[in-house]
Amino acid sequence: MTVNLLDYDLGGLAVFCEHLGEKHFRAVQLFRWIHQKGARQFDEMTDLAKALREKLKTSACITPLRVVSQHVSVDGTIKWLFDVGDGNAVETVFIPEDDRGTLCISTQAGCAMGCRFCATGHQGFSRNLTTGEMIGQLWFAEHFLRPYLKRDDRVISNVVMMGMGEPLQNYSALVPALRMMLDDHGYGLSRRRVTVSTSGLVKKIDLLAQECPVALAVSLHAPNNALRDYLVPLNIKHPLEQLLPACVNYLRYAPRDFITFEYCMLDGVNDSIEHARELVGLIHEYGSGKIWCKFNLIGFNPFPESGLRRSKPAQMFEFAKLLMDAGITTTVRKTRGDDIDAACGQLAGDVKDRTRVVERMARQRMVTFRPKCQFDSKTEKV
Ligand code: SF4
């Protein structure tokens, strides 16, 4: 049986080479050929001895993901749909900007977290992606984009693990993929430019701090437990009084001196001035008076099953102003690629739902919520 070398970080490749009777430096050469030069065939690897290339041909392969479709937005954003087998397909998005190129990578086929405002969550969950399937998205994008954009140098400078799936629920495959991104023999990205986004798996946040601290973004979306229970159901298991101390602790190891909180602005649900005041109180309470986070306000990208609406621009402005007046750096994220459904929260590949998330979410939509939740009457009918 052949192994796919995209699954191995440099440590794994060294062990593989050892099994073939080869020295460690051969693993470095192989790793550089695959990730820096985008080689797919062992015969391209001209500085490897012919005997080793023949050995590799019988024991290994470099099998990238199959591209099902590519869509290019008027703003230059590119979205790919990749086939990952068994009827599942995942999406990856490249977002070009003047000073950077960001790739948004999927980590699971679907997602079991069931966040109310997320198109992926409404599709259900099929399976975790492998390390090779995660790094395969970066491998493909980098080596496709260089000739496509007529560039000789590196195109992707930033990676965000914010595509389909909850990255920390796929922790054991995620960490080797992150190491490959950071490795100077691989993609050589700075820790500050690789971001893991989580809905709040507290124990895994602690583990990531110890094992592979990169920039951290947390999907917050609500200033209190009652509302967050509704929007991000994981909150029922890991409420704010667990999540926020884990975020503060992460800062001791993080490459940046702040955590980014993602906040999807939902009309009449979480976007009032009272919600903004409550958020400021929360941030001060856990930061002992210090500002330790940034807010990224995201305009909701509506999809029919959600029953939710995007906040009005004036409301978003007022909300952002209140946070900024309290000294909290706040940005309103520009929507990119919404003409090709590549904007935040819109990613939805093809997922064979094996966990009945879709059914569960449909049942939740029927529930009448506790008055304690600060929803208006329009939202309660969702
Ligand atoms: S927001 Fe993230 S964690 Fe929540 S359902 Fe969507 S993909 Fe999953």
Which assembly state applies to the chains in this document?
single chain
In the CATH classification, which architecture of the largest domain applies? Answer: Alpha-Beta Barrel
CATH superfamily of the largest domain: Aldolase class I
What's the shape?
Answer: globular
Which class best fits the helix and strand makeup? alpha/beta
Account of the protein in words:
This protein has 382 residues and is of the alpha/beta class. The protein has twelve helices and 14 strands. The protein folds into two domains: 3-61, DNA polymerase, domain 1 (Orthogonal Bundle); 66-380, Alpha-Beta Barrel (TIM Barrel), CATH 3.20.20. It has helices at 10-19, 24-36, 50-59, 131-148, 171-182, 202-211, 225-231, 240-250, 273-286, 313-325, 357-365, 377-380, and strands at residues 3-4, 60-61, 66-72, 78-85, 88-97, 100-104, 108-110, 125-128, 158-161, 194-198, 215-219, 259-265, 293-299, 330-332. The strands form three sheets. It has a ten-stranded mixed β-sheet with strand order 3-4-5-6-9-10-11-12-13-14, covered by helices on one side. A two-stranded parallel sheet has the order 1-2. Strand 12, helix 9 (273-286) and strand 13 (293-299) form a beta-alpha-beta unit. The longest helix has 18 residues, at 131-148. Residues 365-382 have low confidence and may be disordered. The structure holds iron/sulfur cluster.
